[in-house]
Amino acid sequence: MRKVCTLELLSASKVEMFAPLRREELRVLVKSPKNCAASGKVVDLSQLLFELMENIVFKMVFGRAKDDWT
């Protein structure tokens, strides 16, 4: 598993190839607390960061978002 991750997901070319995906997910992440703050809601940053990483990994590995599986 470590070899597959290293060769298929973490090689320099793959990391560079997925840069736009990470940028888009970061845009979504930044909007979420901003919207919550505007409405006076409490923001759980640890949950947001977990979802960010989960979304990035799902899109990198499976080619689609986690929500697209249902």
How far the N terminus sits from the C terminus, by CA atoms, comes to: 26 Å
Question: Kindly state the mean pLDDT as a whole number?
Answer: 85
Largest sheet: none
Tally of contiguous helical segments:
4
Task: Determine Rg (CA atoms, Å).
Answer: 14 Å
Secondary-structure content class: mainly alpha
Write the topology of this structure.
Layout: H1 2-9, H2 12-17, H3 19-39, H4 45-62
Question: Quick gist of this model?
Answer:
By secondary structure, the protein is an all-alpha fold. It has 4 helices and no strands.
Textual characterization of the structure:
This protein has helices spanning 2-9, 12-17, 19-39, 45-62. It has 70 residues and is mostly helical. The protein has one domain. InterPro entries: Cyt_P450_sf. GO terms for molecular function: heme binding; iron ion binding; monooxygenase activity; oxidoreductase activity, acting on paired donors, with incorporation or reduction of molecular oxygen. Keywords: Heme, Iron, Membrane, Metal-binding, Monooxygenase, Oxidoreductase.
